[in-house]
Design goal:
single chain, alpha/beta, GIY-YIG endonuclease, Rossmann fold, 7-stranded parallel sheet, 6-stranded parallel sheet, globular
């Protein structure tokens, strides 16, 4: 019998010194490291660590897991960067769920959950543990030192004694008209103490001051829904609700009252909005109610501002968090309620790795945190609405009327085919819209004009040979931008000058085709020279603060007509707007995407809802070449049930969600043949594993086929679409196929998996 070493409690002490670490690289695995003897204990899950990785050092996160047994040749942890975990167990579990469900590397998921810089690849082996900003401040003073000081020094101490400390040195030097040297001399004599103090970089510096709090009396429908929310909050546990309220029905007032109850009871709240354009308006409302308890998170903040807001949230100094998609990962302590406003909006879906949906991730977080999740929309996503009707999850509550019983705007649809016959040419503005604009300006009212296409002209066409100016990197026509006098690609940024001759045939029959927001703004200014016409699109908000300035000018009445893309359609409350015009209302219907009708209905209904929210009623003009499409008919009546009846039958007939689960695979590469070959190999694996689990009748595999936009940024794109009756079977088939090819050494970096895609382009 060989001798054996008895291990107390059946545990291997060497194994307990190993930890699993996720690193921020596109790798679908975690790595095991040994905790060196100089460290007292293994760092807890959720802690950042510096680790050697190949020939460099990386900052990773310790994650839960079962490290392999002792005996492996493991590398040691270099350093533990945090005294306490920076990710809670619930957020770690959420990150693991996102990685598993959306086929994303865990390290990259965790990186997206943290502010920039905390989990990046450091250029030096000594990364900043906390990228905090400090400034030298006067922390305390001793007036007892007075007899030993000059008269001027005593005067300075007297000034300081009258102030609340700490006081920033730079500000005091400026205001007291003294010098840094004088303060250093006082510090050397013990009369005051100079120390660096952490300061929070504020995202509010360029913001309008918050308005005075106006707590409106809730109408019976609002009160009923608020009571339902409070009942679920008091009962504890996870719940989900859908507030289906028409535009202008007062959903935000319900949110504010519900969050107020949560904060009063010591809890925290999370409020998601789809677009950065909504955050100034919403955050000002919330600051009026909750003051310094409010934190804001979105991509337009500087890295320092984002870190400081994240730190305030983590430290419990801000219990009301407002933000866009990534805010779903905010380290909110004691989360009681999460609200996803405009839950239908496609902006909640991340376009690159990790491809999570913030609404669905919020629902999962609600489960993990045992919190209430409230979804709100005037035009709910069809799958959400269907789930509430068929299964009661989420439970739907309806706000059927506008606040103060204001009427919905009067909507008119203009058939642009008849306008063409009448005038013998295509018009930007119909006769009706021109006349209503004139009346609006005469009454000093405001108007919104929606055209969901930026730039000046959509394309450049040669009338001799029929060729267009296309991007050299993407399968798309270039858009002409007059303000830069360039043809631009909206996908890769490629640009070229406007030619005077056709590059194909050399002739001068060049024509600018279609119109964008630039051209509409110009046309309006020509028609109404005295009007103040503004524009809101990606081109006008490139500089920091420009978005807020444009919205603020319009809200304050400094702009009469605001032309914009879909950025103007979502959630804004402009009481002065009495007219909304929609140009090219049907252009979204032409896209090869099963959600085209739904998106068109949502956009039209949302932008129509911007009219008539003040004292005066509103009017909406929708210009279209397809006036009989059911999405336009329903939008004209602002009738969601009517749209749902038509759309659900289309989805049922062709087995689209909610009657199936979709998974889209996109294979990209610069060599077309090699890319297609990889897509074929992946497709064959999918078929093999579908057969293995016996799901041939329940799981359809379409493709590979060229994507609708076959080439973007110089890479060819092939698509495989999976339709599954049972979502777990689709995920199992994809996971098994990916693992098979990975084991065979196939490079899958250019294969992306999109679960529950919202865009099939």
């Amino acid at each position: 019998m060989s001798a054996s070493l008895e291990i107390p409690s059946g545990r291997d002490p060497e194994r307990n010194r190993n930890v699993q670490v996720a690193v921020p690289l596109p790798l679908f695995q975690e790595f095991t490291y040994r905790v060196p003897d100089r460290m007292e204990a293994p760092p807890a899950a959720g802690t950042r660590v510096l680790v050697p990785f190949r020939h460099r050092k990386l900052v990773g996160i310790v994650v839960p897991g079962s490290p392999p047994a002792a005996g492996l040749n493991l590398k040691d942890l270099e350093r533990v960067l945090d005294p306490d975990p920076i990710l809670s167990p619930q957020l770690l579990s959420l990150g693991q769920w996102v990685a598993r469900y959306y086929f994303s590397p865990l390290g990259e998921v965790l990186q997206s959950m943290l502010p920039p810089g905390l989990l990046s690849k450091p250029s030096a082996p000594e990364p900043r543990v906390w990228p905090v900003k400090t400034r030298m401040s006067i922390r305390s003073i001793d007036p007892s030192r007075g007899p030993d000081l000059t008269r001027r020094q005593r005067e300075l101490l007297a000034l300081l004694a009258a102030r609340k400390l700490p006081v920033p040195v730079a500000r005091f030097v400026r205001e007291a008209r003294t010098t840094h040297g004088t303060l250093k001399a006082l510090a050397a004599r013990g009369a005051l103490v100079l120390k660096p103090v952490q300061v929070y970089r504020s995202p509010w510096l360029d913001s309008d001051p918050p308005p005075p709090v106006t707590r409106h009396s809730l109408n019976p429908d609002q009160s009923r829904i608020l009571n339902q929310i409070e009942r679920r909050l008091s009962g504890g546990g996870f719940h989900s609700m859908l507030i289906h309220g028409i535009t202008g029905s007062g959903k935000t007032e319900v949110y504010l009252n519900a969050i107020s109850q949560v904060v009063q009871n010591g809890g925290s709240a999370l409020m998601l909005v789809p677009e950065i354009g909504l955050t100034p308006q919403i955050s000002n409302q919330f600051r009026g109610w909750f003051g310094s308890e409010v934190a804001i998170l979105h991509s337009a903040l500087s890295e320092g501002e984002r870190f400081d807001q994240w730190l305030r949230i983590r430290e419990g100094k801000a219990r009301v968090v407002i933000g866009t998609r990534s805010s779903v990962f905010a380290p909110v302590p004691d989360l009681r309620i999460a609200i996803v406003d405009e839950e239908h909006d496609s902006s909640y879906k991340q376009g690159e790795m990790p491809r999570y949906h913030a609404r669905d991730t919020a629902l999962k977080r609600g489960q993990l945190e045992q919190a209430l999740v409230v979804l709100g929309s005037a035009t709910p996503q069809l799958e959400i609405y269907h789930g509430s009707r068929e299964r009661g999850r989420p439970q739907a509550e309806v706000l059927p009327r506008r606040v103060l019983d204001r009427s919905l705007p009067q909507v008119q649809v203009v058939d642009m085919r008849l306008e063409f016959q009448k005038h013998g040419k295509a018009l930007i503005l119909s006769d009706l819209l021109r006349e209503l604009l004139r009346q609006s300006l005469e009454c000093n009212d405001q108007a919104l004009i929606l055209l969901n296409r930026r730039g000046y002209s959509a394309a450049l066409l040669c009338r001799s040979c029929g060729s267009t100016e296309s991007c050299r990197n993407c399968s798309i026509s270039l858009t002409y931008h007059r303000d830069r006098n360039r043809l631009l690609c909206h996908y890769c940024g490629f640009s070229r000058s406007l030619p005077t001759r056709c590059r194909e045939c050399g002739k001068r029959y060049i024509h600018l085709l279609g119109e964008g927001t630039e051209k509409v703004q110009e046309a309006l200014q020509d028609l109404f020279p005295e009007a103040r016409v503004g524009r809101l699109d990606r081109d006008t908000v490139r500089r920091k603060g420009s978005l807020q300035r444009i919205l603020s000018d319009f809200r304050r009445g400094r702009t009469d007509v605001l032309v914009g893309t879909q950025m103007i359609a979502k959630g804004h409350d402009f009481p002065g707007v009495t007219l909304v015009g929609v140009l090219g209302a049907d252009q979204g219907l032409k896209l090869p995407d099963f959600r085209a009708a739904e998106r068109t209905f949502q956009l039209l209904t949302q932008v129509a809802g911007r009219a008539g929210r003040g004292e005066r009623g509103g009017r909406v003009v929708i210009q279209t070449y397809f006036p009989n499409h059911y999405s336009l008919k329903a939008a004209r009546r602002q009738d969601y049930p009517l749209f749902f009846q038509e759309e659900i039958e289309f989805r049922r007939r062709f087995q689209y969600p909610p009657f199936s689960a979709l998974v889209s695979l996109l294979v990209q590469g610069r060599d077309r043949n090699a890319t297609l070959d990889l897509a074929d190999r992946f497709g064959r694996r999918l078929l093999e594993h579908r057969k293995r689990i016996g799901a041939q009748q329940r799981l359809r595999i379409l493709g590979p086929a060229p994507a609708p936009l076959e080439r973007i940024k110089g890479e060819y794109r092939f698509q495989i679409l999976i339709k599954a009756v049972r979502r777990p079977e689709a995920l199992e088939v994809v996971r098994s196929s990916r693992d098979d090819l990975s084991r065979k050494g196939v490079n899958l970096k250019k294969v992306s998996v999109d679960v529950d895609p919202v865009n099939l382009m």
